[in-house]
Amino acid sequence: MAKHIHWIRYAVVLITAILVLWIVQSREKQFESQEVPVFDFNPETVTSIHIWKGTDSLALLREDTLWVFQEPDTGVVDQQMVQDFLKMLSEMSHGSYIASNPEYYAEYHLDETSATHLTLKADNDIVGEILVGRSDVSPVKDNIRYPHDPHVYQVDLKLTRHLRPQAAFWRE
To answer: Are 23 and 69 contained in the same domain?
Structure first.
C-alpha cells in the first residue's frame, strides 16, 4: 500500500509540473511579437514609384513592361534593380510598434522633414505609402511609419540603402 501512495505522489507532481509549464507558455505567447507584412500588394501590379526626401525627388513609371524615369526625365532605369526593390518590399514585415507618440518622430527620423517618403501606385490607386527613417539603435534596421498611423515600427532591413531619391542610383 505504501508503494501505491508513492506512485500517486509522483503522478500528482508530474501533472502539476505539466500544468504549470502549459500556463507559463500560454502567458508568454500573448507577449510575442507577431510579424506583419509592411505592404500587401503584388509587385506586378505596381505602375508608379515615388521616393522623396526634402527637395530631392524621384518618380519611376512603368510603361508596358519597362520602368522609365518620370521625374527627373534622364537616363535608362535599371530594370532588375526596380524588380528586386519591389520584391523586397512585398516580402518585408515588421513586428510590434516601438513608439506611438508623434512628439518622438524626430528621434526616430520619421518627421516630415527628415524621413524618406515612399509611395507605390497601381494605376491611380495608392497600394502602399510609408515614411522611412534610419535607426540610431541598429545599423541593420530602419524605422517606418504609415502616414495615417501614429505608431512607429522597426523593420529588420536597412531600407534606406535602397530608397534613394537620386536618379543616378536607379540608372543602368
So the answer is: no
Residue keyed to cell 514585415: 93
Together in a domain, 7 and 70 = no
Angle at 135 between CA 163 and CA 116, to 5 degrees: 30
Q: Which amino acid is at 68?
A: V
Look up residue 23 and give its three cell numbers.
500556463
25 in the same domain as 3: yes
Identify the CA nearest to 50 among candidates 143, 112, 109, 117: 117
The pLDDT value recorded for residue 29 is 67
| pLDDT greater than 80 at residue 1 | no
The grid coordinates of residue 47 equal: 505602375
Do 6 and 80 sit in the same domain of this protein?
no
Q: Residue 18 belongs to what domain range?
A: 1-32
CB atoms within 10 A of CB 115: 26
3-state SS assignment for residue 77: strand
Rounded to two decimals, the pTM is: 0.78
